[in-house]
Each structure stands twice: as structure tokens, then as C-alpha cells.
Amino acid sequence: MSRELQNVEYRHFTTQELNRYNGINGAPAYIAYKESVFDVTGSFHWQQGTHQVLHQAGMDLTECMAEAPHGEEFLEKFPKVGTYRKKLHKTGVNMPDQGSGTQKEHSLDDRIRGAIWGQFVGDAFCLGSHWIYDLVELNQRFPNGPQGFETPVAGHYHFGKRSGDLSHYGDGALVILQSLAAQGSFDTVDFGLRFMALFDSPGYKGYRDHATKETIANFHTFHDGNPGADYTFQDGADDDQPATVSRLAPLAALYFRSENYLSVVERATRVCQNNQRAVAYALAHALILRELFSGSHLHDAVRASGDIMATRGAAGSEVNEWINAAMAATHLDVWEATHQFGQACPLKASFPSALQCALHHGGNFVDALRANAAAGGDNAGRAAMIGAWLGAGLGVDALPLKWRELLTAREEISAGVERIAAAVQ
Amino acid sequence: MAKVTREMVEKTGVNVDQLVELLIKNAAAELTTFYYYTILRVNLIGLEGEGLKEIAETARIEDRNHFEALVPRIYELGGKLPDDMKAFHDMSACPPARLPKDPTDIKAMLTVLVEAERCAVRGYTHICNLTAGKDHRTYDLSQAILNEEIEHESWFSEFLGEGPSGHFLRRGDTSPFVSKFLR
């Protein structure tokens, strides 16, 4: 059995549920074969849910295999997403399962740990291959593709950091994790002050991106003009890049059941990104995580997020359009889709690129991170999102333990994860 | 449309609409492969690439011949090609045989070529299975194309180090099996 099939999220499908995954109008394409359900959405051969004219997704195709010009080994490359069983009627005729399925779900604790660890592992995985846009150059530096956790070489944006360190995205993520863990809730000022303490310090040797530099500048401008006044930390940079989406997982875990969830996400975004587009993408990211924490499958979570964003004005509609585009591109290779959507940092490129990768490799955390890293550009920003989504969907055990142990900040992250996980229960 | 021809096939129990759609999808695969192979062929350069260029060119021309041979059968059975070339491309029975990220990677080039041929071998085997003993003319055509696709697969497979193909390059004209449908 392939590695991909070992790393799976199982759920039980009734016939009615299976039929919904027919691949039509953007629906995922699932097929049942010998009591297993496979996600064939990403396959060129299952576009619009139809295979070789004769076969339709959403069906049990076990009996069709005998006449197919290929064997069942072809299914091994597709994520196995669950089980399906026809009930044997007393007449001996197979009857559709009517429901009450015994869904084996990951526990909430498992999903939360997966999301937070996944976010940090994703970021650190791409440290040494970050921001290399030319794929020829990327291939020359990493002939077998980035394997993850490479130490940045001289001249690289993150030179000086070493294998297992976090990028500046991850450094910011650690700040919010520690703030949440210390306060037990999201405190805009506490997070803001911690952020300034790290990134405005001359001792910080990491990269400062646009969001960071302008946030720091706005902070000082306010204090210069208003000596002694309280600063609300809601005047971050006019920036639409991944600063916030790369750090949201612990906040989402803490608040996803709150009726104030989206307003808290918006406040957290405006600390460093006072920008409507950044808010919209952060909300979409948070909505996906909420669905995943609630037990939804990734495709359903993404669809639900898009449906809600479509009702939230122009910026929300833009996000929904990119969500639809990503869902329609799952058959493409990740590098190809990333080139279509864009390798760069702006969220209108990085968000759909990350989403396409997560959907394409929905059943396998390792393959997803490798494929994303090999697509170049802002792979670290995308990896933080992908890691959070797949960690939430597949549970923490889908992340190689060795990778978590490689993180330089593993003890700080672990302490934060334990506090968040305990608070959520 | 050849009315009686279609009736005869329908009487055997073959779903002719489905069969026509399959033929159109495979015709799309042939024409798009002809296009993508053109790009692959011009990139087969250097000491390793030049050795492959001739068989890639033969496969390219024969795939175009397959397209030419399939079109009359589609119309005989009451089908038609899409008006929109882009729609035709997108309905192909096989994935695009795109140039690899690194065109100097000969193994990657060969993998694209052999996968394209394997997809075609499966596709025509499928059509032969559907039509055997029922739709004699479509079977004859599909079998002829299948013969050539099998040879293409063998050539590329041999270069990939998967063992001897047992075949030799074409000596003379292309499409020894399909040419009777092109006259």
C-alpha cells in the first residue's frame, strides 16, 4: 500500500453522502471501490466527475473494475477518504446503507494540535528554499526538490538562521501563540507589545517584511504625535500579504466556537495588517479552520468558507472567486497551479495557490509540503496555511514526529500548544 | 451520418452516443498530443535528445494520422467535432503531454512520452473491448491505432531502460496499420 494511503482521514459514507460527491459544478469527485472511498477530484481523468464517458463519480464502481483497461493499483495514488459499505439485504441483494454510519473522526484535541504544529512545521520546512522564484534555480540548488528544513545559504533572505528555525512568519506566529497562552484569550495590546518587543528590537536578526516595518513605523508615529496616549494596535500596515494567515491557527483554536470569532480574527489581523483584503483572506482562512475543527472534510470546509465569504462584500467575493478557482484546479500539478495563481506573497496569489496544494494533496501532509516547497516563491507563507489546514484535517499524527522535533522552538511551541489545547477542552 | 451504419451498431447493444463521445475524446487526445509532441520534439536536442528525436517525430506524425482516421468514423456514427478548439483540447481523453520543467532532463521527457502512449493504449484497448464483435468498423480502426500506440510505447519504454521493445524503427512510410483508413 502506498504511503499516501497510510496517511488518511477515514469517515464512513452512506450511499446518499457518496452520491453528493459527484464532481459536478465544483463538487469533489469521490468513488467507492471495495468498501473504500477514494478522492479522485485531482485526476485529469475525472474532470467534471466523469471518467472515460462511462463512469460517474459519487458511485460504487467496484463491479466496473473487471472491464477496465487498468487494475486497482491505479487507485493507490488517490487519497483514501473513507469507507463505504452496501448493506446486505435478507434477500441477499445489496442495499444502500441508509446512514447512522460509524464515522471515525479525529478528536478536537488531535485537530487543534495538528493545526498549530502544522502551521509551524510548514513554515520551518520552507526556511532554506523560501522566496526562490526561478524554478531552474530552485532545481539547481535542490536537485531532488527541497526536502525541507534546509539551512539558508549566504545571500538568502534568511541567512543566519539554521535548520529548524522559523522564518519571520513563524517568529510572528510564536509571538501570538505565547500571547494567547499567557493571557488565555486574545488581547490586542498584549500581542502588539510582544510583537514590538521582538521585531522592533535591534537584536532581532530575522527578516522584516513590509507588514512588520510599516506596523512598527505606525506605532512610533502614533507615540510621537500622542505622547503617553494608549495605542490600540489596530493601525497595522496597509499590507495584503500572509503575515496574519501564517499565524492564525492558535487563535482559531481558541475562538472557533465563539460567536465573536470573526470579529476577533479581524482585530488580530488589523494589528499588523489594517487592510480590507488581508482581513477578508484571514476570515476565509479562519472559517476553513472552524469547519475542520468541527469535523468537516477539507473540501466541505473550503466550500463552506467560500459560501460565507461570498456574502461579505467585494473583498469577500474576491476571496470566494479564488476559492472556486482553486477548487476547479485540483487536477493540476501543484507547481503548475502555483504558477497560474502566482508564486508571490500577495494573498490573491498565495491563498489560492496554498488552497490548491492542500486540496490536491489532501490526504498527505508530507507530499503537500514537498510539492508546495518545490513550487517556489513565497512557499513559507503558503506552507503555514497548508500545514494548519492539513494538520486540522488529518490530526497531529499526520505530521512526522521527527519534523516537530527538528524545530528549534519546539519547547516554546509545545508549551503554547498545551495551554491552548487545555483551554479549548 | 451513415444512418444504417449507426442502426447496425445500435442493434448490437452498443450505446452509440457514448461510443461517439469516447471517439471524440480520443481524437482530441491525438490532436493535442500531436501539438505537445511538436514542442517536445524541438526540445529533444543535444547528445541524448537527438537520439530520441526521430521516434518522437514518428509518433507525432502517426498521432496526427490517428486523428485524421478517427474523424470520419465520428461523423459516420452521427457525431461531430466541437466548434470550439479550446473545448476540444479540454475534453481530451489523456492529460496534456506538456514539456517537463527541465527540458534537458531526458528521463523526464521520456516519462512524458511513455505516459502519453500508455494512456492511449488503455483508451483504445477500452474501445476495442466495447466494440469487439459488435461495431466491426470502429473495432478495426481502433485496433489499427492500438497497434501503433503499442509500438510507440515500446520504443519509449526501451529508452527508459524497461527492457528491449522487440521492435525496430519504421522503415519507410509511417502508420503501417492505420494508413488503410487514410487513403
Structural commentary:
The complex is a heterodimer of chains A (425) and B (183). Chain A is mainly alpha-helical and 425 residues long. Chain A has 2 domains: 3-95, Roll (Flavocytochrome B2, Chain A, domain 1); 108-424, ADP-ribosylglycohydrolase fold, CATH 1.10.4080. Chain A has 18 helices and 8 strands. Chain A is globular, with a radius of gyration of 22 Å. The two termini of chain A are 36 Å apart. Chain B has helices spanning 3-11, 16-43, 46-76, 85-90, 106-131, 136-159. Chain B has 183 residues and is an all-alpha fold. Chain B is globular and about 55 Å long. Helices cover 68% and strands 0% of the residues of chain B. The mean pLDDT of chain B is 94. Chain A binds chain B through residues 44-45, 47, 52-54, 67-70, 135-136, 139, 335, and chain B through 18, 21-22, 25, 90, 93-95, 101-102, 121-123, 125-126, 129.
Top keywords for this entry?
heterodimer, A: Flavocytochrome B2, Chain A, domain 1, ADP-ribosylglycohydrolase fold, 2 domains, four-stranded mixed beta sheet, 18 helices, disordered N terminus, B: 183 residues, Ferritin, 6 helices
Main sheet of chain A, how many strands, which sense, barrel?
4 strands, mixed
Fourth CATH level, the homologous superfamily of chain B: Ferritin, core subunit, four-helix bundle
Largest interface: A-B, 14 and 16 residues
The tally of strands of chain B reads 0
Give the SSE string of chain A. HEHEEEEEEEHHHHHHHHHHHHHHHH
Total count of domains of chain A: 2
Could you write a compact summary of the structure shown?
The complex is a heterodimer of chains A (425) and B (183). Chain A has 425 residues and is mostly helical. Helices cover 50% and strands 5% of the residues of chain A.
Layout: helices, strands, pairs:
The complex is a heterodimer of chains A (425) and B (183).
Chain A: H1 3-6, E1 12-13, H2 15-20, E2 30-33, E3 36-39, E4 50-51, E5 55-56, E6 80-84, E7 87-88, E8 94-95, H3 108-125, H4 135-141, H5 168-183, H6 188-199, H7 210-225, H8 249-255, H9 261-272, H10 276-293, H11 298-309, H12 313-328, H13 334-341, H14 347-360, H15 365-374, H16 379-394, H17 401-406, H18 410-424
Parallel strand pairs in A: 1-6
Antiparallel strand pairs in A: 2-3, 3-6, 4-5, 7-8
Chain B: H1 3-11, H2 16-43, H3 46-76, H4 85-90, H5 106-131, H6 136-159
Helix pairs in contact in B: 2-3, 2-5, 3-6, 5-6
